[in-house]
Amino acid sequence: MLYMLRLFIVNLGIHLAVLFLGLFLVIFFTKNGAALDEVEKYKYLFLVSGLVVFIERLIYYIKYYKFHILPYSLKLFNRVNNEQKESKIYLDKFKIYDKKSNTYFFKNRLSIDKKAYIDLKDRIIHLLGYEDKNEVEFEIKAHNKKEVAIKLFKLPKKFDWHIGLLKDKNIYLGHNKDGSYYLPLENLTSSICCGESGSGKSNFLNMIIFSLLQNSQYIEHLDFIDLKGVELSRYELNNTTFTDNIEEANNLFENLKNEMNNRFKEMKEKKDLTYNGNFRICLIDEIGTISTHFDKKLKENIFNNLIEIGQKGRASKVLLLIFSQKIDSTNIPTNVLTNLQGSFLLRTSSQFNINNSIGLNEEVEEITRTRVQDFPKGRVIFKDGLSSEKVLLQTPFLSQDVQNSMIKYFQNWINK
Ligand SMILES: Nc1ncnc2c1ncn2[C@@H]1O[C@H](COP(=O)(O)OP(=O)(O)OP(=O)(O)O)[C@@H](O)[C@H]1O
């Protein structure tokens, strides 16, 4: 309490000093250098404006009391060590609340320790008065050198799909802290999606396909490969092909590689940096089934082609979207994985999956309070293949009926 009072008095003092000096200068100059007794005539103006500032500051401190007291309560400070004197402590301070983005900024005159905020996030949430820990999500970002930005937001755990989420030239990836999140089709890269059984992978896969189909005019062909299921065979569209046969898949990759190289030739002739035509996109569900196949030579050929497509595909608009429960080297060779630029991570208890798709735990903790193994169904972290930005998303639920009616919708439109 004493700390708050001190903070308030210092802050009020600064504001009043600036106000009075400003008023004095205005009067002084408008009255062509009036004497002090001239200024005295305006004492009521000083009094009223001083009172207004006092009330405004008081309301501000009462309103953001919890945020002002937070660095003090949680001992968020930085210190300088001087050889002669004792070390000096600089406490972090609440700077401002940005209403538009619902973000709170804290600053420190020396430099700020973002990790301390990440480590204390549960206590911060508690201190701010959110009793139910699951009620609110927490994102923390470094802002300038000496500030951290804390954004509190809510993500629904479950919501329904509707066709209005589809958008021309964009892929809808779910809802993030600001609402619907779209990846421009132009920025799509070859990507890996991993999540354990029941995490909502198939649901997510179908949702991505809807966005791709909505953008059919920019996509030459979509190839679906699933060696263990028939879910993707339901689409039966003029611009899609499905295979559950490994030899056919091998031929397809050979084909895609040739197509990619032809596109490169054309680009070279035209001196284009990116291919000036439509995308070829291949979706592979459960890539692990290829790794377990007995024919070593066939597997090797497939994986070599996947590596090449992953490496060079983006400029020529030939892309791979690979889905897998696990991404260790027994499921997907490391060379294939490292050449997929983007990643999507759903619920998993495997630290290997997390590290090799998104990165360190600390990076995950910056954007969510929920551990990846506790993610609800359909919760995804997307790592952008171009910018490496990480985004926390919740994907809508697609019931069987919704999936069937969407497939019918695309059949009526594309197969016409
Ligand atoms: N976004 C979502 N929101 C709510 N519930 C979901 C969501 N996605 C999936 N579910 C629920 O989770 C169940 C499993 O989803 P899904 O089949 O997509 O998971 P999966 O990871 O593909 O599992 P598997 O690998 O075993 O097929 C679904 O039947 C559905 O009820």
UniProtKB/TrEMBL annotation:
<keyword id="KW-1133">Transmembrane helix</keyword>
<keyword id="KW-0812">Transmembrane</keyword>
<feature type="domain" description="FtsK">
    <location>
        <begin position="178"/>
        <end position="355"/>
    </location>
</feature>
<keyword id="KW-0472">Membrane</keyword>
<dbReference type="GO" id="GO:0003677">
    <property type="term" value="F:DNA binding"/>
</dbReference>
<feature type="coiled-coil region">
    <location>
        <begin position="232"/>
        <end position="273"/>
    </location>
</feature>
<feature type="transmembrane region" description="Helical">
    <location>
        <begin position="7"/>
        <end position="30"/>
    </location>
</feature>
<feature type="transmembrane region" description="Helical">
    <location>
        <begin position="42"/>
        <end position="62"/>
    </location>
</feature>
<dbReference type="InterPro" id="IPR002543">
    <property type="entry name" value="FtsK_dom"/>
</dbReference>
<dbReference type="InterPro" id="IPR050206">
    <property type="entry name" value="FtsK/SpoIIIE/SftA"/>
</dbReference>
<feature type="binding site">
    <location>
        <begin position="195"/>
        <end position="202"/>
    </location>
    <ligand>
        <name>ATP</name>
    </ligand>
</feature>
<dbReference type="GO" id="GO:0005524">
    <property type="term" value="F:ATP binding"/>
</dbReference>
<protein>
    <submittedName>
        <fullName>FtsK/SpoIIIE family protein</fullName>
    </submittedName>
</protein>
<keyword id="KW-0175">Coiled coil</keyword>
<keyword id="KW-0547">Nucleotide-binding</keyword>
<dbReference type="InterPro" id="IPR027417">
    <property type="entry name" value="P-loop_NTPase"/>
</dbReference>
<dbReference type="Pfam" id="PF01580">
    <property type="entry name" value="FtsK_SpoIIIE"/>
</dbReference>
<keyword id="KW-0067">ATP-binding</keyword>
